[in-house]
Amino acid sequence: MNNMNIIIADDHPIVLFGIRKSLEQIEWVNVVGEFEDSTALINNLPKLDAHVLITDLSMPGDKYGDGITLIKYIKRHFPSLSIIVLTMN
Question: Where is the signal peptide (predicted)?
Answer without folding.
Answer: none
